[in-house]
Predict the 3D structure of the following.
Amino acid sequence: MGAPKQRLLLALLLFRGDMVVPVAHIVDELWGDEPPQSAESNVRLYAGNLRRLLAAWPDAPSMLRRGSGYQLAVADAEFDLRQFRELVTGGRESLQRNDFRAAADQLQQGLGLWRGPAVADLPCGRLLTGWRHALAEERMSAAEDHAEALLGLDQPDQVLTDVGEVVAGAPWREHAQSLLMRARYQAGDIAGALAAYDTARRYFVDELGIEPAAELVRLQKAILNRDPALTPPRPAAFLAASSPAASPATPVPRQLPADVVGFAGRTVLLGCQDELLARQARSGALPAVPVEPLRPAGAGARVSVITGPAGIGKTAFALHWAHRASREFPDGQLYVNLKGFDPALPPVAPAAALHRFLEAFGVPSARIPADVDARAALFRTVLAGRRVLVVLDNARDAEQVRPMLPGTPGCSTVVTSRDRLDGLVAIEGALPIPLDMLSPAESRELLTHRLGESRMAAEPEAVAQLLTGCAGLPLALTIVAARAATHPEFTLAALAAELRDVRARLDVFTVGASGGDMRDVLSWSYRRLSPAAARLLRLLGSHAGPETTAPAAASLAGVPVAEVRPLLAELTRLHLLTEPAPGRHGFHDLIRAYAGDLAAGEGPSADNATAQRRLLDHYSRTARTATERLAPRQERFALAEPEPGAGPEDMQDAATALAWFSAEEHVLLAAVQQATEAGLDAYTFEIAWALADFSNRCGHWETLITTQRLATEAARRLGNRSARACAHRYLAVAYAGQSRHDEALAEAVQAAALACYRPALDLFADLGDRVHEAIVSNHLGDAHLAAGDPAAASTTWRRALNLMTELDVPGADEVRAKLHRLGIDQRPPFTPGCNKRV
């Protein structure tokens, strides 16, 4: 199947199982944090090669391009991993019924599909490495179940061979150790069984520093006592004795906290959760529920991962859906707050959460194993054959969650986290449900639930301002609603006035209770950051643009681009940044305000000021390079020495420059405004000048007017007459362009264009810049004619023509044509003896 990276692509598409894999994920898997510039084109090449290879096989899976990614459509019967999982699931179900023959046959067939470790011959990246480890775990778990079935059939010799291999490779697997002890006991080797216990105990004590779990200790005592439960035909009864059999006396836990009052919006995403439940019903694991399919989930997905930044409403969403679907889980609903981002308390250990869950089902504390793996196994045993909903709220990472995932298809798990938990999505096939800000209509619905229709209707303008200030963040809306509800004497207009100052927004979002202060909520994520990522977040608080890229962030932090990429990924994973487009990272306004507060409170002011100059250096120098790629400019302005650590981006050609300007224009506009507010006039002019040609090409007159107004004042303060003349010229061009496209404003903007061209012309004349004097004279004549003054137009065009002819400046023929249209013949005379004009 080709080169290693081409085979890696095939493995990745198989691993995602019929899901579309974005090109960005493929690039990350194939090259890691430092992909080559040709990475995406290489991916297309590998995909094309795979498509041709697969097309040559009869009944081969189809390789499809889907939007910005690729998909491998593989039927269940064509994929050995799916066959393995189906056989293992069937074998485990037979094992639960004590049908040892059927269980042994099915599990043996499944294990027979293996030819060695998965993708062992490839240099896997992050995702495939995790997948490979997870598959090895699945294989060993299936081998243990197969051993259980063989012991039930009184075939210990085969168990000694198979489980011996598992124990040799993974001596920490206590269940495998217990199977080895039982096999030796069942084969009549009592001394060997006790020796196996001693070997296992030495490993746990010497290597891990812990005593063996209760399962092994009980088994040793049972062997010493010749416990009849260890002999066929029901050898599994001993191990099951530590868990309660399903009976009418078994408790049914109802642990869900109260549903959210006044839940608003999220209709489509609630439908995604319903569709996941419906897929389980269609597979026979649950009774059918009448929902309309809204979004495909993984074929075997029983886990959904709800992610988003602080205050986005993850817990509210999870609990609202859980209450809505609770009737589908008659055997219980479990809930635990894992405190993954709590500012004061450590995350809840998986072993502690499992202990609570097992106690909720009536398992006595004395019978709950100490080891987390043993507890997880007992938990899955307890849930086997039951329909239970498990809500794992505020998870820190995938490792904290995995031990609590049920193994039976009748159960569903809902996980919430600020981390994206890519591992659960990639390995467990979880359905990701990323929450975004509420829409204006949803935000209004939430406020109406809390404040009442009459109060909302009484101050419609204030309501609109509140909605804008809260920017769709549910926690912010809830806090503002609580403030308004507990202070009925406050008008909504007064609350809206508090929100107008961005720097004061976080002070408004405080209600005095832990977890109700936006700073507290955001600090939960901030405290989890590495020091370098925390510093980058503080510095990004001073980034005025709506988005940033890795090169810009690298200049801001004064570090290489390769060093800043993992920091941006860390901030994005914790939802302190968003990634609206590949490689572009943005902020929510309130998180930006929080980062700004951090910068003011924690970062040295000198560091922040230097970082701001590095960022402006990056934008001014990159923009200058880009505009020179588009078209060399007549005017030149010297740039000051850049700040150490600032680096411009490379512009290979005009197409690259045009794409960069298209993506960064709104960021450059914000940078011009930020430089002006900071009193950095040189940066104000330099960025505005570099952006001007692109704005003029695209007819973005408002941007051109805004930047050149600021550039004019900056040049005046700098005392740079040449820069001031240039800014006046571009400002006039913007007004003239606007007059051609806005008839309602034509008269006013024509007057403004004239008012800008005149000082530009005078300044260029005083400076002796006759080339620009000619160019501006030409444009000023256009402005006079547009204003209805052909005489003034004729005068200025004659001036332009004389200068252009004398200096050999391009454009003289265009000016002659304009004068000719006014009835003035400016053709050059005939030269005697020549039949054409000179």
